Request: fold
Amino acid sequence: MSVPLSQMWVVATYVLKQKLRGRKRYPLVLMLEPLFRCNLTCAGCGKIQYPAEILRKHLSVEACLKAVDECGAPVVSIPGGEPLMYPKIGELVDALVKRKKYVYLCTNAIQLKDKLEQGVFKPSKHLSFSIHMDGLREEHDEAVCRDGVYDEAVEGIKEALRRGFRVTTNTTLFDGANPLRMREFFDEMMTLGVEGMMLSPGYSYSKAPDQEHFLRRSKTNELFSVMLSDPKKHWRFNQSPLFLQFLMGKHDYECTPWGNPTFNLFGWQRPCYLLQEGYAETFQDLMENTRWERYGRRSGNEKCQDCMVHCGFEPTAVDQTFGSWKGFRDTVVATITGKL
Amino acid sequence: MTLQGWVPKLGEYLTLAEVIDLAFDYRGNTAVVKVDGTEVEGYIFNRNRDVSEPFVQMFDLAGNGPFKIPYSEIQNIKFTGKDTAAGNSWLAWLERKEKEKAEKAGRLDKGTA
Reply:
């Protein structure tokens, strides 16, 4: 596993503090969406289908920072939309780094090389570019519905690494993914020199153009079991090993929808990053007045039955690590041996 | 299936609250017809009926807002704007890829690839 020690320490002490305070629900990663605009229209994405006047809008840096302070999570992920299209992305990232937040800037990297050449970002242990890569060239270009994007992303990765930035990848997997090709993809990303990879099955957004290729739970287990069985020693994953084991079917976890709260143009999204059932005006309102019992697999909510996405289950995995000796032991063993 | 262009007929089988839920889920602009006969056109991004005075929240066509409109001031909602989740761009991409594949296969058959 490849999360840097300093980041691991910050997250560990944060989680332990929450536990000592007896907080049942606490945020781990803030999903901050400063805009919905994107320069791609990916088949599996349900995030960007809005009228033009909504796509033209974006949050102010002040609104973003107010949300960050309200939430208090140690990690801030900036997805979107495409965050490199946010006019004040440099200023926002700079302010987050000054607050010592660990920032994952999730980008398709089409504009990354240009932004780096313009000096928009400075390398920091608190900043990682999380590059959207859904597989090798053929699979990735098909997933993002545009030829040539894989090559642009690879260029961006190389340039970021050359300039001393932390670079990770984020990969969403859909039905029909070829586990052997994915293993080749892992080799390729490691050869490029990325710090670690993040994986997740896709979620069946009702607004996504492609409704046929989302993974059901049993198929997710099957795919990840084959793909991650006997993992190569040089593969590094920038996520909890317990979450990967959950995807392989080795643990049965319940969703933690409040673990990755989402803030965007509309406010605090209820109940999670994936479902849009309404918006709260404050983080406190989100946490206190969302009917959490209506969500997660055990609730019977059909929208949650096949979901195994990172934003709901990675916080559960992290909570398990620090919530039980078994969880802690399993995490340590997987981290040291690299076996899943 | 899309609700684009739909003007709901409220009555025994379709309540205002149901139409508001559909409008909230709709990824296009709508026109909120108020009880005083005026209309506000824009994007409804939120609705809350778990409060003492249920309301919708929206941005207008210029992107101004958000504005809050209580359910009690709404007569009906018309689905006037384009449904941006209809998936047309993705279908166009699929059709283009299929055409490219067919052309490539054709060239291979003729030995000209």
User: Anything to note?
Assistant: The CA atoms of residues 49 and 86 of chain B lie 27 Å apart. The interface with chain A takes residues 24, 27-29, 42-43, 45-48, 50, 57, 59, 61-63, 66, 81-82, 84-85, 87, 89-91, 93, 97 of chain B (CB under 8 Å).
